[in-house]
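Purpose: get a first structural picture of the assembly so the mutagenesis plan has something to point at.
Setup: two entries, given in the order below. No constraints added.
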Amino acid sequence: MCGIAGLFLKNRALEPQLGSMLADMLVVLSDRGPDSAGFAIYGGGSEKDVKVTLRTKGADHAKTIVAALETKFGALHPVYRFNHVVIVVQAAKYPALQAFLTEQHTDAEIVGAGSRMEIYKEIGLPAQVAERFDLARMSGTHAIGHTRMATESAVTTKGAHPFSTGTDQCLVHNGSLSNHNGLRRELKRNGIAFSTDNDSEVAAGYLAWRISEGATLKQALTQGLKDLDGFYTFVVGTESCKPAVMAETDDYVAFGSEYRALAGLPGIEVARVFEPEPATVYAWERA
Amino acid sequence: MPTFDLSVEPLRELNAALHQLPSDTNETHWVIAHPNGKHAIACGLDKPITVEINGHVGYYCGGMNQLANIIVAGNAGVGVAENMMSGAIHIKGDASQSAGATGHGGLLVIDGNASARCGISMKGIDIVVKGSIGPMSAFMAQAGNLVVLGDAGEALGDSIYEARLFVRGSVASLGADCIEKEMSAEDRAALDSVIAKAALDVSASEFKFYGSARRLYHFHVDNVDAY
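Result (structure tokens, whole complex):
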């Protein structure tokens, strides 16, 4: 089943509350997805740097890895959250850092990278996952989240959403894809790497490939309607058929698998609440 | 007039209280506050009472309803009035997928739009949608009347048996075995009756009528080799 939630703030005054608003939405969606949960949050950052979210085996492992990386790449300003650590590296040094992590077999996985995006995901109830990463105290401009009820592959952290689709981009998915095996083979031939048997990772890889070929996100999603077989609603975070409800006010645009996830948001009583049309791509950009 | 606030009182207690009402109850008008999209609100009612719900409801609101009159001042989630037997349900906002699914009787009125599969497998219910309906509506519909004042999405009435579909606006496409038909006196009387019951300010002559071509569920001798 899965639950997906997205929140895009228009009113800057709400930014410090972004994490707590998303945490409440994910907890409500627990019974749609009790296996695992994850979220991507877009906070502060600089164009000159790359913010890298690494998933490690635990806090001590994270510290060892950061120490090794700092010897080679200089100060990385690590922020530790449970078994994840977010580091900031100069954009020019990022490819070398990626290569170093692979070559040294550090067992640290890059969950996502971008100038502002941080991605966290873990197995467990959404409330536990939000608590471990202290989501409620995170601030930012927009965020997407996912609660998982696995159907296509194992319950593992790697199989939890969001999946990174490229720099500052990630995807959450509710539904299932029927042609993911064939598509995965094709994408591998085009140089896209996969680390799970998960169908949603294929959708993420597909979008990353389309974008690398020059498509905009909206074009990539529109082409995806033709190439991705199955039933799905995607929420993609960047700088849709399963049921979904959207709410828009002057302060935010929110998205949830069902209305319950939105019921706790401020001003929801007067929000414009609507269902997205099937096979239609919706996109918002910050002015 | 009993009132119930679902932001403080548990939903199970509300449904239990409604189920326990005797047939001759004097508590005939209930008001529910803060439904907050909760699922299965006012399901399985079987007494002639009125339940007003002030806010948006989640999945399966008013499911299996018999006799009760349920009014939702908000939107409804998936499967509102699912398998309704009798009574009436009025949604003042929009309804999500599968509104009135498998309904046997009663009247479902949606003031806004209804999304995909409205009236799927309907078996005698009357459904009025004042806005438009989504794709695959009246899929495998068997009996009853679906009256749409707006437009219908793709594949209206796919694999339909014998329900009547009346659409005032455009139809994106018709599903397998669903065709536009001449409105007979009997069909028109059925439409007039729904218009009257729902107190609609429209005339039967504004609607086009769709129903089954009856090619799909009757055996045809040309197909004998297929068996």
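Chain B touches chain A through 19 residues (CB under 8 Å).
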